[in-house]
Amino acid sequence: MPLRRWWEHAQKIAGASSVRGLGVGAEHWLQVASDVADAGGLLHTLWVNREPAGDAAVYGAYLTELGVLVAELALPAGGESVYYPGLEDIFPAASRLQRAAFDLSGVRSGDPDRRPWLNHDRPYEFVRVDGEGVHEIGVGPVHAGTIEPGHFRFSVVGEKVLRLEEHLGYVHKGLEQRFTQLPILQGHRLASRVSGDSAIAFSWAYCQALEGMSGRALPPRAAWLRAVCLELERLANHLGDLGALGNDAGFAFGLAQFSRLKEDLLRAVSAAFGRRYLFDIVVPGGVAVDVSSQAARALAEVVRTVCAEIIELRGIYDEHEGVRDRFTGAGCLAPELAARLGVLGLAGRASGQARDARVDLPCAPYTELAVAKIVQQGGDVAARVAVRFEEAQESGRLLRRLLAALPEGEHAVTVDAPAADAFGVGLIEGWRGPVLVALQAGPAGSIRRCHPHDPSWQNWPALEYAILGNIVPDFPLINKSFNLSYSGVDL
Length: 491
Hints:
Elements: H1 3-9, E1 11-12, E2 14-15, E3 19-24, H2 26-38, E4 42-50, E5 56-63, E6 68-75, E7 83-84, H3 94-105, E8 108-109, E9 134-139, E10 151-157, E11 160-167, H4 175-179, H5 187-191, H6 199-214, H7 220-248, H8 252-273, E12 282-283, E13 286-287, H9 293-319, H10 321-327, H11 335-341, H12 345-349, H13 357-360, H14 381-404, E14 423-429, E15 434-441, E16 447-453, H15 456-466, H16 475-482
Parallel strand pairs: 2-14, 3-6, 7-8
Antiparallel strand pairs: 1-3, 4-5, 5-6, 9-10, 10-11, 12-13, 14-15, 15-16
Helix pairs in contact: 6-7, 7-8, 7-14, 7-16, 8-9, 9-14
């Protein structure tokens, strides 16, 4: 059945615009996935709900040109025999999602890779590469710097990388269970901490799902202020990454200058919102803090100044022979491979994947902003840097427009807890890529289940391919050019 027929059979889901749900039987679970793939869609996330009585359901959320399609396959109670067909042959990104889902629920897919993703009671069985002169280099999970834990196993000849395999999940925090211990009207606070550099994206996605379930429309001023916060989050992260990438290329001047610009921006954010980092700003029904017209003008002026300096610094990066030599050709991920792996967000757009939820599936106020979709074809570090430079400028343009024309009215309204078993989905394009939150209400204002998804799930495997043929010393630069979240997958 073509994708459009599945879409027509599906029912509207509360939350983000253009999200529909479809209950399927075992005979159609793989067919839906195959038809989505044939239509150019992607598997965004997969999760399992298992009830204490043993009944379970597996969900697959797909990004399609029509919207987000959520397929649900009900599974009968059956102890250890509960099973569903795996999607890894259709969507490679499914493999780690399925392995993590099994570790959390005991519901197994047909994926032949049975290695635990979250269970560290025994050594992880990395795939070995045999051959003359091949040796392994293990990096992590404990690192010299203040980064989160992850193990990277390199198979190399000399310094040339033949294979990289990652193992994450070392700091599994039990977030999905913790959500169920919170009132549904307070879950946005935990959502903002799924991955701290994407606090606005996750909390907005959570609130979008909740508001849709409650039938509460968002005031225009609240929507515009959320967009201001989201673009500030995007701009701040790009500034930090551009400086760090310059430093990894041996250009400390870049780190100093972009650190200065990020500090200027964060001070302006603090003056406008009362905090440097925007945790707990997005709340059910709007935003926690309004912005005065004077503060909006001051913030817009700082954004204008920062963006003017970004243009000047881009010229320096482009003209610096050493930086150009380190960026160009390093960590190349061809568009065809990026499409096969389902790479999302910034990393995907740097490899020719023209997807941006602000354009493709916009919510207010992005429906009015005509966001420019930034796409590069090169797929290397240079392309990922170029996307950051151009997206920083686009965020600056959006911020100046948003701050200059904030609608009058309320910045927040009251939201009531939805009815038990109500289900909603939020989808927001964060700085790293599309963030999704699936939320199901429990009785008396509780949370029955909340599943947050960071695009790093799709993009971590792509890093394993991007490093192939490069030398080991280039890994920190290539890794930073993706800048993926550990916390966002170690739920």
